[in-house]
Specification:
about 475 residues, about 10% strand, membrane, transmembrane, alpha+beta, MdtP/NodT-like, Outer membrane efflux proteins (OEP), about 60% helix, Efflux transporter, outer membrane factor (OMF) lipoprotein, NodT family, four-stranded antiparallel sheet
């Protein structure tokens, strides 16, 4: 290559290496920082910080394994992961606009030239070969391309945060499904115990009926009443068994398995972890992935507004070419036949029919929309924590009172049974106390499951994410 050709290649390399690199926009969370209160208002119980090992706090290794399986196999998580990749590729594409482009062209041509004339007519075959290396760079003097690339990076960050939010939500759903399965098994066991109890009651009434002890609760109507109560409870058993199978299928779907209804849950609900997490409200803005995702989209909208404002400035581009032109293929790389050029271009929009102004105003509106969305997301996050903390308090009180009622209902049922056997009680009182005992026990199991669900909701609302090991 001659001096000029080498110079163009060197300049091209320097231009490529000297291009400014875009970075993600700075955090704009300050726009909503004053929305955070000094402390939570719903409850004063939450004193500890955010617990990232909350899944393990329920003391069930199988639950931990199911969460791991769900995060790995659930199709929604695979969709979220692919969306992250797509957003990253989009950011890479946006960033490439401010970088030089290079193209290499090789051309070969064979032509027949016909000569017309008298007396020397005839023809000739002509060969032509050329090569051209072209470098073009739209120089980002004002930072318009960098603003666009920075916005795309923020979008990619928001998409990754969406994936993290979906992962935490999936872990919470698996936990709740696991608790629902345990509750369903307990509810089936309660109904089965009730059936056994009511079968004994039917036999006792039948015995008195067959011995014609009408004054001692052995009438036909009392027998039919006891049999009706048993049949109703048998129907309830079928309902509970259906709920159990539905809970099994739901859990299997969450972990990415075929919904065969074969997963085996624990027989009873796990114990409630004692420590109530909460942290401080301001920390929520730095932890919750949906809040940070909304902030990243707000930041991206700001960079796109900047891009629209900079679009009114002129665009300057450089184009450099070097190559050869010869009639022989073997000489196409010979610099003695080289040609080169270097040109610059300046383009300034003058009349656009109001397009640039409309685009700027549209993006300003989008920025305001994203700010409002961020504010709404923050309010929703605070509301979820406050509601979960309040529910923690009220569920605890309800369970305490219902445990007392459960104890009294058991004692009432035992007394009614003894009274009936002593011929001092009636079958209506016996059946009513038996039914109330089972109903209260069922409500208590349901409340304890709701308490566990609410603790999961609290962890999720605090936005601390989760770890599946202590490492």
């Amino acid at each position: 290559m001659n001096f000029c050709s080498k110079g163009i290649v060197a300049v091209s390399a320097c231009v490529f290496l000297s291009g400014c690199v875009a970075t993600p926009p700075d955090s704009r969370m300050v726009a909503v920082a004053d929305m955070a209160p000094g402390s939570w208002t719903a409850s004063k119980e939450g004193k500890s910080g955010v617990d990232r090992l909350w899944v393990q706090r329920f003391g069930d290794s199988k639950l931990t394994r199911l969460v791991e399986e769900a995060v790995t196999r659930n199709p929604n998580m695979k969709i979220a992961a692919e969306r992250v990749q797509q957003a990253r590729y989009a950011a890479r594409i946006a960033g490439s606009d401010g970088r030089p482009t290079a193209n290499l062209d090789l051309t070969g041509e064979k032509r027949k030239i016909q000569f017309v004339g008298f007396p020397f007519g005839g023809s000739q075959i002509a060969n032509s070969y050329s090569s051209e290396f072209r470098v073009n760079w739209d120089i980002d003097l004002w930072g318009r391309v960098r603003a666009s690339s920075s916005a795309a990076m923020a979008d990619a960050q928001a998409t990754e945060l969406d994936r993290k939010a979906a992962e935490a939500s999936l872990a919470a759903e698996v936990c709740k499904a696991w608790f629902a399965l345990a509750e369903a098994r307990q509810q089936v066991a309660l109904v089965q115990d009730s059936i056994n109890l009511k079968k004994r009651t039917v036999e006792a009434v039948r015995d008195r009926f067959e011995r014609n002890l009408q004054e001692e609760g052995g009438t036909a109507s009392q027998l039919r009443l006891a049999q009706t109560d048993l049949a109703t409870t048998m129907a309830t058993l079928s309902e509970r068994q259906g709920e159990l199978e539905a809970a099994q299928r739901r859990l299997e779907l969450l972990v990415g398995r075929y919904p065969a209804g074969k997963v085996i849950g624990r027989a009873v609900l796990p114990k409630m972890p004692s420590k109530v997490p909460s942290g401080v409200p301001s920390g929520l803005l730095q932890r919750r992935p949906d809040v940070i995702s909304a902030e990243r989209r707000f930041a991206a909208a700001g960079m796109r507004l900047k891009e629209a404002k900079l679009a009114v400035f002129p665009v300057f581009s450089l184009t450099g070419t070097t190559g050869t032109s010869t009639d022989s293929l073997i000489k196409v790389v010979d610099s003695d036949f080289g040609v080169w050029s270097l040109s610059g271009n300046l383009s300034q929009a003058i009349l656009t029919g109001g397009v640039l102004t409309a685009e700027r105003d549209s993006r300003a509106s989008k920025e305001r929309e994203e700010l409002a969305n961020l504010q709404q997301t923050v309010l929703k996050a605070f509301g979820e924590v406050e509601n979960a903390l309040a529910a923690e308090k009220w569920l605890k009180r309800r369970i305490t009172e219902l445990e007392k009622a459960n104890k009294l209902a058991k004692e009432a049922a035992e007394s009614a049974d003894q009274d009936y056997r002593d011929s001092t009680g009636d079958v209506l009182t016996l059946l009513e106390t038996q039914g109330r005992k089972i109903d209260i026990a069922s409500q208590l199991v349901r409340l304890k499951r709701l308490q566990l669900d609410n603790r999961v909701d609290l962890h999720l609302a605090l936005g601390g994410g989760f770890y599946l090991s202590g490492k």
